[in-house]
Amino acid sequence: MGGPLSASPNASVNDPSGAPLRVGIVGAGAISGQYLRYFDEHGAAAGVRLVAVADLDPARAADAVGGREGVRTATPDELYAADDVDAVLNLTVPAAHATVARAAIAGGKHVYGEKPLAATVAEARDVLEAARRAGVRVGAAPDTVLGRGTQTARALVDAGQIGQPVAATAFFACPGHERWHPAPEFYYQPGGGPLFDMGPYYLTALVQLLGPIASVTGGAVRSGTERAIGSGPRAGERFPVDVATHVTGVLRHRGGALSTVVMSFDVVGHELPRIEVHGTAGSVSVPDPNTFEGPVRLATRAAREWADVPLTHGYAAAGRGLGLADLARAVRVDGAARADGEVALHVLEVMEALLRAADEERAVAVESTCARPTQVPESARVAVD
User: Fold this and answer.
1) In whole angstroms, what is the distance from residue 7 CA to residue 135 CA?
2) CB 132: neighbour CB atoms within 10 A?
3) Residues 6 or more apart from 286 whose CB is under 8 A from it?
4) Would you call 176 exposed, middle or buried from its count of C-beta atoms within 10 A (0-12, 13-18, 19+)?
5) Tens-of-pLDDT digits for all 385 residues of the chain?
6) Cα(11)–Cα(247) distance, rounded to whole angstroms?
7) Do residues 115 and 35 make contact, with C-beta atoms less than 8 angstroms apart?
């Protein structure tokens, strides 16, 4: 085991002023740059410190270390066994998420990973059960919902500004990532598509706003069997499409509200909102859940026109890594993480259930549930709140 923060939460880590959570990254691909920037800009205040980077390509690990003082390269196995690593930040490809998480847990490490928690619900359950037995924490992206956009909108809902929530809508639509990505094939393989690529942001936001989901109905189509790369040196090259490219569904939340979702790689242009929540006394417009901030607007029966609302709640010092910092806070105070593995498992099951509902043309119950994460308070400082 590592230092005082690598054991399961106990009295020795309840002091918010204690030692930072020492983190090792596994996977130094493109997304790692955003996490590295968070460590550079906010790590000290957020109570997280990068100590090692591992990648199957040693050169990529060396580039990620980039002369950062006190940070070394390592192999994945060395990182899992290191005494000075308390938590593993899992930035590998989705197919490897469960394997890396289980190896880190076996080494006694907390784990925070990029979305999805695992490639399948069965794998995700195995990860959480392994963590439970080992007495360590698991967290997972997206953490954008902990920023001031979604959290301010949630504060309005919780304060009764829209009355009793009745319904929500959540839309992501574009023509497909092949128009800009030079190697887009993985977006169109199992585990990809608009639902698994962008759905976690929208569904996690809906869980924040309205709580867990009890059942789903849905439909899905695949608009073609091939697409063409639109940019880069391989522009014009065709590749197979093996997933649904347009998914729509209705989610019944356990609290009674209904959410309508559309996730699509088949829409050339649209004027749809990102997320709206509608209640008996008003409506709130929620910003893009793939960002930490953005305009929040409110319309009420008394004032029917949309009005901008000041951003009040949520972590202000935001960036990819915020969820890891919140996990470190939870470890220190022996509390609950807001981007935890139970939420990620629930969202993953909702996505699987949507595709099953579409395939079987019936309503599908969602077996898992999760606690609605606690509200991020006003003027929150991730290190102690």
Assistant:
1) 7
2) 13
3) 149, 150, 153, 205, 209, 274, 275, 276, 277, 296
4) buried
5) 333 233 333 222 233 447 899 999 999 998 999 999 999 999 999 999 999 999 999 999 999 999 899 999 999 999 999 999 999 999 998 889 999 999 999 999 999 999 999 999 999 999 999 999 999 999 999 999 999 999 999 999 999 999 999 999 999 999 999 999 998 998 999 888 999 999 999 999 999 999 999 999 999 999 999 999 999 999 999 999 999 999 999 999 999 999 999 999 999 999 999 999 999 999 999 999 999 999 999 999 988 899 999 999 999 888 999 999 999 999 999 999 999 999 999 999 999 999 999 999 999 999 999 999 999 988 777 765 5
6) 47
7) no
Task: Give the DSSP per-residue string, 222-278.
Answer: ---SEEE--SSTTTT-EEE--S-SEEEEEEEETTS-EEEEEEES--S-----SEEEE
Instruction: Give the 3-state secondary structure percentages of the chain, helix then strand then coil, rounded to 5.
Output: 35, 25, 45
List of residues 6+ apart from 322 with CB closer than 8 A: 38, 46, 143, 144, 146, 147, 292, 315, 339, 382
Residues whose CB is less than 8 angstroms from the CB of residue 229 and which lie 6 or more positions away in sequence, other chains included: 178, 181, 182, 183, 184, 235, 236, 237, 238, 239
If one counts every other C-beta atom within 10 angstroms of the C-beta of residue 242, the result is 13
DSSP string of 332-370? HHT---SSBHHHHHHHHHHHHHHHHHHHHTS-EE-----
Nearest of 41, 6, 23 to residue 320 by alpha carbon: 41
Would you say 103 and 91 are in contact if contact means Cβ atoms under 8 Å apart? no
